[in-house]
Specification:
Layout: H1 2-13, H2 20-29, E1 33-37, E2 40-48, E3 54-63, H3 65-82, E4 87-90, H4 95-100
């Protein structure tokens, strides 16, 4: 149950319009991998590029930042290495830039979004 609560919190803050059912489907199908403990959750995928390279992409997280940075992040990095990825990307809010600076991450880009349904 704690897993679901953390997932719901992450989805509430996610800029992506993804539902709980979609995430759970992707996990069941093996498209998304979950890294979690009682206080934190991180969801990741392996993205395969046209040149054959792979990226471990962390795209949804919630919970205790200390555990995310110091426990779960290294597990996700190891998983990505094992899957053949040569890099990891983390999509998230600005707080991640500060939290991960000391473990080798640097801000690469800024994503701007425009909702085209508003006219």
């Amino acid at each position: 149950m704690r897993f679901i609560n953390l997932l719901r919190r992450a989805l509430e803050r996610s800029p992506e319009p993804v539902t709980e059912a979609e995430v759970l489907h992707d996990v069941q199908q093996g498209y998304t991998t979950v890294f979690a403990d009682d206080d934190a959750i991180l969801l990741a995928q392996i993205i395969e590029h046209g040149d054959g390279s792979k990226t471990g992409h962390c795209w949804l997280a919630s919970g205790d930042m200390e555990k995310l940075v110091n426990k779960i992040r290294p597990e996700a990095e190891q998983w990505a290495r094992h899957a053949g990825a040569n890099r990891v990307t983390i999509e998230g809010r600005k707080g991640w830039v500060r939290a991960l600076k000391n473990v080798g991450y640097a801000e690469q880009s800024v994503t701007l979004v425009k909702d085209l349904t508003d006219g």
